[in-house]
């Protein structure tokens, strides 16, 4: 079995294969413009799920996730947005095949947390098999829980960076004031 190329993107590959399946099984073609609008709306809902969590609005976060699970394209966009936030800056080509990316410091055994960690790990390691197995499960009973786990982790990461930005700005003004004296 050959290794996938270094720039292999399991989510994009799964989405391409899924779209090909739809094209073969569908009696009507999708309008590219409406598909583009659907993708844009899904990106907005994915970002909104993170924003709602950072604002403590659990009801709107849950509503955003429900909207993202209504069709496979929207779900794929949500996975891409959320894993993109969580894996930004991770050197995927250099990762060991045993690398694991927990979604919380106290990784528990809830199925949704395990699935979210598996999905994040699969994307980070470019492990198409692991990603595909989790993506198939998203349509199951805990798909909303998996996306909420990813959205919470993404919100925590963004919040951490916002806090870091605050610290750097405080230090900057402290230094500037010190230099002026």
Task: Give the topology.
Elements: H1 10-25, H2 32-54, H3 58-68, H4 72-87, H5 111-124, H6 128-137, H7 143-180
Written account of the structure:
With 181 residues, this protein is mainly α. It has one domain. The chain is built from seven helices and no strands. α3 crosses α7.
Number of domains: 1
Most strands sheet: none
SS class: mainly alpha
Mean pLDDT: 81
Number of strands: 0
The proportion of residues forming helix, as a percent range, comes to over 70%
Q: Low-confidence stretches at least 5 residues in length (pLDDT < 50)?
A: 21-29
Mass-distribution shape: globular
Estimated share of beta-strand residues: under 5%
Distance between the termini: 67 Å
Q: Which value, in Å, is the CA radius of gyration? A: 19 Å
Count of discrete alpha- or pi-helical segments spanning 4 or more residues: 7
Which series of helices and strands comes N to C? HHHHHHH
Please describe the structure with a list of short key phrases separated by commas or semicolons:
181 residues; mainly alpha
Brief summary:
The chain has helices spanning about 10-25, 30-55, 60-70, 70-85, 110-125, 130-135, 145-180. It is an all-alpha fold and about 180 residues long.
